[in-house]
Every structure is written in C-alpha cells, then in structure tokens.
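Please, structure for the following, as tokens.
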Amino acid sequence: MDLVPALEEPLKKVLGPPTAKVMAESLGLHTVGDLLHHYPRRYEERGQLTHLADLPMDEHVTVVAMVADARLHTFASARAPRGKGQRLEVTITDGSGRLQLVFFGNGVHKPHKELLPGTRAMFAGKVSLFNRRLQLAHPAYELLRGDSEETVETWAGALIPIYPATAKLESWKIGKAIQTVLPRAQEALDPLPATLREGRGLVTLPEALLKIHQPHTKADIADARSRLKWDEAFVLQVALARRRHADAQLPAVARKPKPDGLLTAFDGRLPFTLTDGQRKVSKEIFDDLATDHPMHRLLQGEVGSGKTMVALRAMLATVDAGGQAAMLAPTEVLAQQHHRSVVEMMGELAEGGMLGGSEHATKVVLLTGSMGTAARRQAMLDLATGEAGIVIGTHALIEDKVQFHDLGLVVVDEQHRFGVEQRDALRGKGKQPPHLLVMTATPIPRTVAMTVFGDLETSVLDQLPAGRSPIASHVVPAADKPHFLARAWERVREEVGKGHQAYVVCPRIGDEEDDPKKSGKNKSPEDEAEKRPPLAVLDVADQLAKGPLHGLRVEVLHGRMHPDDKDAVMRRFAAGDTDVLVATTVIEVGVNVPNATAMVIMDADRFGVSQLHQLRGRVGRGSAPGLCLLVTEMPEASAARERLNAVASTLDGFELSRIDLEQRREGDVLGQAQSGARTSLRVLAVIEDEDVIAEAREEAAAVVAADPELTDLPALRTALDALLDEEREQYLEKG
C-alpha cells in the first residue's frame, strides 16, 4: 500500500539505479513505500541461533552462526594441475547442528582471513547436498561485530530482522536499504480512523513501521504486527463494504413464486424430502429474491450436499415470478450433465409448450459452443421469446448474440473457474441487474469467504442428504510397497465383480508434445518420483487394459476429446456399459454416476488437497459404500505424503480447506480468487487472524454506512486507492 506522496518517491532516486533495478526485478519494489512495507519474515537473536538441524534443501536461507573450524586444502585439478587448487572448508555451528561452507579458487582469500574460529556472522546461500552432508557453496556473509561500547549481553540480545530475500539480494542488503529510508516512515499517512485506533489500543502507522524494522524487544514486534494486520484487514474490508453498499443501491425486480405454480408442482413430485439444511438455505435465497435490489449470495456446500437441488428450486421460483433463470457451468460435460439431471428431476414440468407437458411447465434449454447450428438457433429463439424459462450452458451463454426475454436469476456453478468478466457479461443481459447465486463445492473457511467473497452473503450446506454412503480413503505408497498397488487393482476388479464401476484419475492426458525445457532439470530433491513426468490417461488406460484390468471394459475421457465423443463416453459410463473410466480431472466437478463406487487417483501428490476432496466426492453417491485410493511414489516423511494422509483421514471439506490453506500461502488463495491481482496480504494470515478479520468487517461496515464516500477520511481513501490499483478496481467493480 503505497500510502502517500512522500512514500511514492522512486527507489532509484534514494538508493541509486543498480540497487533499485534489482529490487524492482526480484521483489517488485519500486517506491519508498513499497520498501517500508517489505516486512521481515522473522527475527534472529544473535545469542540464539537458527536451527541448522532443520534447513530446507534447495532453498535460499539466511543463518546466524559461529565459526567452529576453518581449514584450507590444496588439491590438483584440470585448472591447477600442480596441486595449486585451493578449497576453504569452514564449519559453522549454532548449538543445534553443524553446517559446512565451501569456498574455491580466488574466492578463498577473504573468508580465510575473516572467518576465524569464534567469529559470528550471518551467512546466506542455497542449501545443497555434498557427500550426504548439507553445505552452502560460496555463501555471502556479513560479520556481526559488537561495538566496543555495547556489552556482550546487549549485543547478543539484539534482534536481527531477516527479510524475504533472493539470490541477488541478501537479507542484510535489504536491511541496509530499509535503514536508509526508515526516517521517511514518519510521513506515512494513517489510514485507520483515530477513534478506531485509540479504541483498540493500536500504535500509529509511523511507529508500527519503525518497530517492525528496528525492534528493541519482542513486544515491539508484537505491537507492530497487530497494528499492520489491522491495516490490511480494515482497508480490504472497507473496499468490500463499499461494494456491498453500492450493490444495495442497484434496482432489481423482486421475484416471488406464485402460491400454486411451478415450484409447488415440482416440490409435489419430489420422491424425497429436503434436508433441514436445504430448507434453511432455500428460505435465505427466497427472502433475497423477494427484495428489489439484487441478491448476491455464495452457496457453499460439501460435495454431494444437494446444492443443485437448492439452485433448481431458486430457478423455478424465478420462472414462477415471470422471469428467466440461467445456469453457467465451467465445462461442456458439466453443462450437459446438469441439463440432463434438471430435465429428469422436472419430468413433464420441463416440457413447456409440448404435448404431455404440465400446465405449469416451462422449457429447459441447453446452450454450449459445440451444438449444431439448428439446435443452437432454436435455443436462442426460445430464450429471446421467453418460451424457455431455464437455460443451462457454458461460456456460450455470454456471447453478444444471446438475448434473454427477461433474465431474473444467474446461477454460477464452481465460481473459481470463472473470471469476473464472464459473470459480469451474463449479468449485463438482464433489463435490470439480475439476482446472482454463486455455488462452490470447494469448502472455504469462513474468514477466506469474508476476505475473498466479502461482497457476497454466504449460505452453507453442511448436511449430506439421506442415502449417501461413507467413503473409505487410503494412501497407496507404490514405491515403498508395490504389492499395495497390485491389491488396489484387485479391489477395482472386486467392485466391478459386484456390478459396480470405477474411475482411475491421472494428472495428464498423454498426447502432449514433450517439452524439452520442462524435462530438463528438476529442482525438487524429494525423490525420483518428482523427476518423471506425471502419469498420463492414455498410457495408464492402455497398461490397465492389457494388464491388471484385462477383460474389463475400460474407456478414456479427457478435455481434448471432441465434445460429442466426451458426451458419448459419459452416457455409456452412466448407463453402466463401461466398467472403468480412466480420466483427467474433467470428472472433478458435478459428474454424478451413483453406481461408481471406487476411485484410484494416480500420482495423487500432484493434486491439491481441495481437488482430491472434489474428485473423491464422485464415488459413494449411491447406496453402496465408496472407496478412494490415493496412489503416490513420494517417500513416507515427505510433505506430499502428509498432505495425502490428511485427505485420507477426514471427509470434512472445511477441515481439509484449512489444511490446504495452511500449506499454501494465503497469497495464492487470494491471488487466484482475485483474478490474478496481486495480493495485498503481508502480515495478515487468513486462518490465524479470524478475529481481526471479523472485527475489521464490522468496523468497515459501520464506517461505510456513516460515510460511503469516505469524505472525512482522506488518508483511508488514499490507502484504498493504493490497494485498488486499476486491476483490482475493475475486479471489484465487476464483482
């Protein structure tokens, strides 16, 4: 947040062009304000040193340690055949472990003089493995000298900020640059209203910046962090509160269902009763639809919690009230599937204008990019005349040529697959802004929902409908225990023997051109498993059909097939004519085949936690129990295996989404959700700082209600403008 003109001075004026260039290229820092908001990642106390015992491989690290031993070796090499080659080996220690540093050639002279036993220094470099020992080759280092006036105690207790650094810019160089610009922190404008700041006992912004970069005590760091967290949470929540406020001013047509119309007729033919959760969420939606400003609601529900049913009832209510409803699906497979299941659920109610249709009936049309010209023209005609009350489609719905008679409700399935622009284009097709219902089966922790979808009201479906079966999940360590993998294929044969079906999921299709650049160096030292390309659908299907699943009916499904072929494969699988479907993640969302009971996910470590949970939700949709096997070659102690163990240990999507978030940084989550805009979160952790976010939301709502234009809070306006650089501004505008 480049807060004010004083902090907008370009770094090249202050630090000189070479340093400024590296800062801009490596860290995206351009102004004094950017640099002041580049906070330390952690702090080292000189007396209490980094744990050398748990250094991560292949990462750039900064450690504070003491030289235990330094030895100069000479050796013969091609360059120095007479044994004149020189290698300096320095062993450093921090009490927890030892680490070897090596310097070669002419690079040995300076460290040989300076790195004497007993010397303390900060070392930075990339951790590598040599002869099974961790080492830093040619690390940069900065000697830590206590000034003669300082006592040993104060020197040892000083806090050294360690900054997020890069190979070109060590942490201490960033620290020195920050010391140069730190006096300008006094001129930072404070975005928090004074009453809020004093009421919560927060320090001023200049003081917070000073304390985060130059702390004397741990209490200083805590003061600074709690203040800076509030800045981030509050400014973001003000942006979202202003969005909600602006939306509330928009006009919309209230859509109230007729007492004995289409919705009543539909409810009357349901063979089951709705769950309490479905009834509660439906009431929230119907209340919103009945108001004369647009509904903006996020419906999140566990895989299989019956979101589609809730959405369909909202669509029927809209048709009852004289409007049309559109459902936007991310893929053709899913749009066709939704269309098929909606028509099945509605029966004669979906046969508007046809013989045998009910008196309340409407027409339900499908619109996708690959439809034939005649079918497409008919669908578009039905929409323009109002003959069709419900349309289900892909991006094809958004095209300019598509006109609606009276669009009243837009349902977006799997929100994270759509750009904001696409939602916006569809919303623009109503005479007045239509109501909007966004659905996601990726459970989102409450705080993330408040941060990412803060402009939407949230409804949660966490109850599974009756008749859903439990899913057992197991990790299959193919490298450690190959016989486990053989057993997995036996289990698939057993399920097929009982009359059921199975999915096998692979990360890749297998007809890609091999990219020589990608197959070169692989950075992760985890294991050979990392080095080979991910398993591919076409290869695996072939191997299974000839090997462990010989004799079963095996088919493939992936994104590059022709849409008609995809649909034909899905129809055969749904009809039970295929035993095993080997597919990519195209089946991740919305595919509903109750007879499929087993799923084997190959190279499961290549998928994210939420994605695995989504995929697993495709089995156990009928009365027979589901089985999900996560196959991996990653070693037991690896982070990838921990992630898979977490997925296998719980079916609670909200719990998994927390794990997922803790493992990825929030920035990824927010960055993705905010259409690629840079995340503004530096000290705020979405999971840990739940209270701050919730309180900031309340404060922001109060501030915006009292002063929507922020006329009396110029500093907050400035901070907001900095947060909402143009990309963000458009993102929030389009919502």
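The chain has a mean pLDDT of 81. The two ends are 22 Å apart (CA to CA).
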